Amino acid sequence: MSTSTIQLPESTIHALDNLKALPEESYAEVIERLITLCSEEEELTPEAWARVQKAEEEYKTGKTYSLEEIKRRLGDE
Questions:
Q1: InterPro entries attached here (predicted)?
Q2: What is the pLDDT of residue 77?
Q3: Which string of b and e fits 4-14 if b means at least 16 CB within 10 Å?
Q4: Which pLDDT belongs to residue 17?
Q5: Can you tell me the distance from the alpha carbon of 29 to that of 21, in angstroms, rounded to the nearest whole number?
Q6: Whole-number Å distance between alpha carbons of 31 and 34
Q7: Which of 1, 26, 53, 76 is an S-S bond match for 71, by CB 3.0 to 4.6 Å?
């Protein structure tokens, strides 16, 4: 196995530390696990992608509900 050295911002190192499954897990193992997780994700269908884009637009325009409002609507309060 060949190795390379890369420079990472401190914030990325802290993020990788927080993603470790075990304290002794190496950064390479964390990155390999993330790559595997990303490559295993299913592709979004055009319909699902359209729903994501619609939700993003609603969020940007303030068409959202607070947790309190949702609870009130559902009768949980």
A1: DUF7557 (IPR055979)
A2: 60
A3: eeeeeeeeeee
A4: 94
A5: 9
A6: 5
A7: 76
23 phi and psi, to 5 degrees? -55, -30
Cα separation, 24 vs 42, in Å, equals 30
| Distance, CA of 27 to CA of 25 (rounded, Å) | 7
Residue 75 has pLDDT above 90, yes or no: no
Q: What pLDDT, in 10s, does the model give residues 20-71? A: 999 999 999 999 999 988 877 677 788 988 998 999 999 899 888 888 999 9
What span, in angstroms and rounded, lies between the C-alpha atoms of 35 and 61? 33
CA dihedral sign of residues 44, 50, 51, 55: positive
Q: How far apart are CA 19 and CA 8, in angstroms?
A: 15
Q: How far apart are CA 76 and CA 12, in angstroms?
A: 40
Tokens 């055009």, located at residue:
46
